[in-house]
Amino acid sequence: MDIRQLKYFLAIAEEGQITSAAKKLQMAQPPLSQQLKLLEEELGVMLVERKPRSVQLTDAGIILRNRAQQILELTDSTAREITDFVKGLKGTLSIGTVSSSGATLLTESLSKFHKTYSGVKFEIHEGNTFMIIDLLSKGIVEVGIVRTPFNTSNLEYRYAQSEPMIAVMTQEYDWATTEDTIDVKELIDKPLIIYRRFEQLIRDTCLKEGFDPVIFCKNDDARTTLFWANAGLGIGIVPKSALSLANRENLIYKEIRNEALRTQIAAIWIKDKYISSLATKFIENFGQH
């Protein structure tokens, strides 16, 4: 049993059909079938049940599929680790970021890292938190930059400093012209524009203060919240650092005095999975424990 055979077997397991697996591997079907047969003979067990147009894994096949995935991931990680050792701190670091991560905070981390490790290049992928975690699990990015709250299952993380959430609005919505901060209760009956993933947090906080918030618009991007608020359509609720994403020409903002409505940027990576020296150094330079 060798790495090549395990790759062949995994392709068959994923495709559920030898013909499709052969196409995926860019090889003819007979040699692939022969490799599967040799693997079964070596292990002394049937790995798949052959049907007219498909194959189905046996119990032994399921065990091998799970182990093969681990073996191939370890092989790939080992190769990357050796490459990192040979190259030193050079190469390309892939990072996934959410829009509300705050350009200033992320830029500060990148600038600090770049000054120390000038030979490193970057590849940035943008999306929401769920997309970033998916990119991490698929190995497309090594480090994700997301914002609390997020599900910490299977993740390691390192936080930056916490910051308040703010209410952003045009002058026509500014009911407290002389104040820089507001209480949550002041949002009663105000048309709120929110980033969808903060909805539960905002609702729970408002309900504890005795009212149900009026959600005028929910969206999936902090920039959309800011654009709508800037157009005078309502009051946006965003993390303070997200202001760097918007044209602030028409916007006024008020910090919300409530500990529940504080949030943090976090660097995240997959638990118990190899990460490169580049990613390790970037994490060390990011935020605080």
UniProtKB/TrEMBL annotation:
List the GO molecular function terms. Answer: DNA binding; DNA-binding transcription factor activity
Q: Which UniProt keywords apply?
A: DNA-binding, Transcription, Transcription regulation
Q: Which residues form the HTH lysR-type domain?
A: 1-58
**Which InterPro entries would you find in this protein's record?**
HTH-type_LysR_regulators (IPR050950), LysR_HTH_N (IPR000847), LysR_subst-bd (IPR005119), WH-like_DNA-bd_sf (IPR036388), WH_DNA-bd_sf (IPR036390)
- Report any Pfam family annotated for this entry: HTH_1
NAD is among the record's keywords: no
Q: Which CDD domains match?
A: PBP2_LTTR_substrate
- Give the source's domain of life in one word: Bacteria
Q: Where is it found, in Gene Ontology cellular component terms?
A: cytosol
Instruction: Please give the family membership noted in the entry.
Output: Belongs to the LysR transcriptional regulatory family.
User: Could you tell me what this protein is called?
Assistant: LysR family transcriptional regulator
Organism the protein comes from: Paenibacillus antarcticus
